[in-house]
């Protein structure tokens, strides 16, 4: 069911009503109020109106339809890697990345009782980030659309033998007890989020800031295709900070890559690298240029 559990509905409705009055000030996020994405949105833009959406896809759609000025989307986690689907959703959304935001993620085990628990519900990323904690206690991780939504679901269930893994705020919002704090397996657990909007940033706004540029490209199906693609950045002295491969479709013939570099189009060495990349590959698509939120290297 693509609907938040009952304990979240009043808050979701009031946030949606406030956002509907001033959509340009609204920041859409995937998850119920109290989710990590909600908290990242508020850290990034404390005066914005948070707009809860059931999924990341719905949050992107809210920007596309004009229901929100931008969306806050998790893209990768230091412990558990890529956030599923984002590599397909971002390019397909047609939106531009206008900012990045890093947030230290800390999870709590929360429930109506104090255990023992057969299962804990959460977003698959949060379950992955707390994998050791759960397996040491014999608690089965069960996937839910988001962390805070899982807390609302556990509250609605009335059951004392299930728990949620979610931010502390969610326990507060949905009336659960925090059984254990900091259940993430690594204590520097951090998620990188990106902010997406309809219009790309005007590069003039980035003057003086270290810029990042995110793009996707598809290599030709020939030997050394990736070597040649990466050579474009090596010879032009451009620092690549992220490179991830993924398959599009089921042919497995042409691999796509999702990449971040330091620098912006308009800088001669970046322009030269991207021009050469276009020549060496089946296509390059820029997803956005924005200010670096954390120094790399
Ligand atoms: O469910 C949430 O709380 C989310 O905001 C999603 C999400 C993610 O998908 O990465 C965000 C940050 C954390 O890494 C865990 C979960």
Automatic annotation (TrEMBL):
Q: Which SUPFAM superfamilies match?
A: ACT-like (SSF55021), Periplasmic binding protein-like II (SSF53850)
Q: What keywords does the record list, in alphabetical order?
A: Amino-acid biosynthesis, Aromatic amino acid biosynthesis, Lyase, Phenylalanine biosynthesis
Enzyme nomenclature, EC number = 4.2.1.51
Which reactions does this protein catalyse?
A: prephenate + H(+) = 3-phenylpyruvate + CO2 + H2O
Q: Which domain of life is it from?
A: Bacteria
Q: In which pathway does it act?
A: Amino-acid biosynthesis; L-phenylalanine biosynthesis; phenylpyruvate from prephenate: step 1/1
Q: Which InterPro entries match?
A: ACT-like_dom_sf, ACT_dom, Chor_mutase/pphenate_deHydtase, Preph_deHydtase, Preph_deHydtase_CS
**One GO molecular function term?**
prephenate dehydratase activity
Q: Where is the Prephenate dehydratase domain?
A: 26-198
The record's annotation in CDD domains points to: ACT_CM-PDT, PBP2_Ct-PDT_like
Q: Which residues does the UniProt record annotate as the domain ACT?
A: 214-291
Name used for this protein in its record: prephenate dehydratase
Taxonomic source organism: Qipengyuania qiaonensis
